[in-house]
Amino acid sequence: MSAELTLALTKGRILKETLPLLAAAGIAPLEDIASSRKLVFDTTMPGVRLMIIRGTDVPTYVRHGAADIGVVGKDILLENGAEGLYEPLDLGIACCQMMTAGPAGWSPGSSRVRVATKFTRIAQQYFAEQGIHADVIKLYGAMELAPMMNLADIIVDIVDTGNTLRANGLQPLQKIADISSRLVVNKAAMRSKHEAIQAIVDAVGLAVEGQSV
Ligand code: AMP
């Protein structure tokens, strides 16, 4: 049985906050996602199915039309680009900030700054805009370690409470961007399946408004 609309959802903390919004919009998985090893789920809305994948893969599936709609963090859209995607809704969930962070009291010297981050494109662009010469070093995790181990002077990372930074002797410095999860839509699908997709965008939009009241 082929579904008419596929939604690609980011697994993890974003998924936990996405499911109540979708439920309020009339889309609930027919099985408990948390206790299943499946990656695709039919839903209470006929013809609509959910895929549960890594956030970095969501724009890829939606851009290629393998999914019609996606839920993904703005950090990933900024880092990987949003070509081929519409971004009709800010879901107001998984809110955090993209920031620079460094050892307490750190200030830029006259020379170049070494920056460790998973978000190399965001970092390159930010420091270029600031007119600062940055050597950006790509890491895949635990960015907080880099200043302590003298791999880098500062980092660029997602900050929510700041607890992870403080636990590793770092403090937030400059905000680069506000981050939250976004609904994205494949541009071609937005035309060819306009009615069905717009109905979902509208229903999720109402759920978002309800959530913020
Ligand atoms: P915190 O200690 O609360 O500042 O959280 C910091 C870490 O949690 C970051 O390094 C991120 O890996 C992760 N994190 C926090 N909020 C989010 C979010 N909304 N989306 C993705 N990762 C997040």
TrEMBL record:
Its EC number is 2.4.2.17. Keywords: Amino-acid biosynthesis, ATP-binding, Cytoplasm, Glycosyltransferase, Histidine biosynthesis, Nucleotide-binding, Transferase. Signal peptide: none annotated. It catalyses: 1-(5-phospho-beta-D-ribosyl)-ATP + diphosphate = 5-phospho-alpha-D-ribose 1-diphosphate + ATP. Pfam families: HisG. It is found in: Cytoplasm. Pathway: Amino-acid biosynthesis; L-histidine biosynthesis; L-histidine from 5-phospho-alpha-D-ribose 1-diphosphate: step 1/9. Heteromultimer composed of HisG and HisZ subunits. This is ATP phosphoribosyltransferase. It comes from Candidatus Litorirhabdus singularis. The lineage of its organism: Bacteria, Pseudomonadati, Pseudomonadota, Gammaproteobacteria, Cellvibrionales.
